[in-house]
Amino acid sequence: MIYLFLKAAHVWVVLSWVSGLLMLSLVLAGVQGSIEAGSPTERRILISTRNWNQAVTAPSMILTWVIGTILAIKGGWFGAPWLIAKVIGVVALSGVQGVQTGLLRRLTGNGLSPPPSMVRAMPVITIAIAGLIVFLVITKPAFLA
């Protein structure tokens, strides 16, 4: 029974993390090249996004790692090729989180550093990696063995 509760909690925090990461991606992509760069409205949006990132998205990422590790131990999946591929995807999403958090910190700190043009690709990257992770978890493909 505890396994099912952990699994439900894992899905919940993953949804919170990926949703927050996607929101962060979209906000950063939206402010890049903004006509009103540095406006009070843009600054409020960036500060609100930073607060949400600190209060919800980042803790969700940490809980995703913690609960996912517990589930992998309980499931006896360490060493499974699909899990290794999934962990690579989760590491990549964690890296995206770190890059975007740094960009957001710079934008809210001095407002002078516009995000790089690669930020426009971040929403697509986030969805693609999350989709790959879901595929690996659901199918646990044997072709990776």
Short description:
By secondary structure, the protein is an all-alpha fold. The chain has helices spanning 2-31, 40-75, 81-109, 122-139. 78% of the residues lie in helices and 0% in strands.
What can you see in these coordinates?
This protein has 145 residues and is mainly α. It contains four helices and no strands.
Total helices: the number is 4
Q: What would you report as the Rg, rounded to the nearest angstrom?
A: 17 Å
Alpha-beta content class: mainly alpha
> How much strand?
under 5%
Name the helix and strand elements from N-terminus to C-terminus, one letter apiece: HHHH
Main β-sheet, in a few words? none
Mean pLDDT: 89
Low-pLDDT windows of residues: none
Helicity, as a percent range? over 70%
Shape: elongated
Organism: Pseudomonas petrae
InterPro entries: HemJ-like
Keywords: Cell membrane, Heme, Iron, Membrane, Metal-binding, Oxidoreductase, Transmembrane, Transmembrane helix
EC number: 1.3.99.-
